[in-house]
Each structure stands twice: as C-alpha cells, then as structure tokens.
C-alpha cells in the first residue's frame, strides 16, 4: 500500500501567489493615499500654528504690548521673531513674549531645507494672487508643487 503524498500541488501554489499579488496591488495605492493624507493633515496643522502665531503677534502689537514702528503694519518682521520672542512693554523686568516654540516644517518641502526655508512668505503689501516677501510676514504658504486630495493646490491652502 502506498501512503498519500502530503503537500501542495504547483497549481495550488500558483493560484495562492496570484491572489496575494492581486491583494497587494489593491493595497499599495491605498497606503500611498493614507501617507499623503497624513502629510496633508500635518501641513494643515503647521499652517494653523504659524498663522495663529502671526495673528497673536499682530494683536499684541495693536494692543501696545510690543514695540511697533509708526510706519509698520504690526506684523512680525520674520518668522524667527515669533520663536525668539519680543520684549513685553508691560513688563518692568524686560520679560519677553513668545508666540511659537519652534517653526513647524512644511511636510511636503525638500528635506534639505530648514523649517524656516520650507515656507513661502507673503508681506502685508503683497497681493494674495502674487505673494511676495517684504518687510513683514503677513502670511505663509507652502512652496510644494502639487494638488491636495481636495483638489486645491498646496500653495493656496
């Protein structure tokens, strides 16, 4: 009497590999979308943090808590000033007001750029459709080329 041979036939192995390949080809684009969505969430968060700090600086300048030149707009002269802080005019001891702990990085920017260099800067006198840097920082925008999952280019977020 012969014992039955145990194991898988070649056809069973080939069919199993085909099913695994099919599932992997379906999952690959999904993982790319998940990673991209995560970067977009990071971009939204970073833009909110920087813009919130710029607005807080402007409110403090308009309230007279920090020094503002007569011809100035009241917006910070650079993003770095939000991190370095400015002298609080209400404090006798010369305390400083800080608006950011650090400058967040644009997640879509080139990794060789510093966090400060990863953003495009728009001055108060610059038009919205043609943002340019100037004497102050009124707004920031992403320098990344491409369009978000929502169909809006990253530069317009």
From TrEMBL:
Annotated Pfam families: N_methyl
Alphabetized UniProt keyword annotations: Methylation
Claim: ATP-binding is one of the keywords in the record: no
Biological process terms in GO annotation: protein secretion by the type II secretion system
InterPro entries for the chain: Bac_GSPG_pilin, N_methyl_site, Pilin-like
GO cellular component: type II protein secretion system complex
PROSITE patterns: PROKAR_NTER_METHYL
NCBIfam families: IV_pilin_GFxxxE
This protein's name: General secretion pathway protein GspG
Taxonomic path: Bacteria, Pseudomonadati, Pseudomonadota, Gammaproteobacteria, Pseudomonadales
């Amino acid at each position: 009497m012969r014992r039955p041979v145990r194991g898988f036939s070649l056809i069973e192995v080939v069919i199993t590999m085909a099913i695994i390949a099919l599932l992997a080809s379906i999952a690959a684009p999904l993982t790319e979308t998940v990673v991209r969505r995560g970067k977009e969430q990071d971009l939204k968060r970073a833009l909110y943090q920087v813009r919130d700090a710029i607005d807080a600086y402007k409110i403090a300048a308009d309230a007279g808590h920090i020094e503002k030149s007569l011809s100035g707009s009241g917006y910070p002269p650079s993003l770095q000033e939000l991190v370095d802080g400015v002298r609080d005019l209400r404090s006798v001891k010369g305390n400083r007001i800080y608006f950011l702990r650090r400058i967040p990085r644009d997640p879509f920017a080139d990794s060789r750029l510093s966090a400060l260099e990863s953003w495009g800067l728009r001055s108060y006198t610059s038009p919205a459709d043609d943002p340019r840097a100037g004497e102050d920082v009124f707004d920031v925008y992403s320098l990344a080329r491409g369009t978000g999952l929502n169909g809006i280019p990253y530069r317009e977020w």
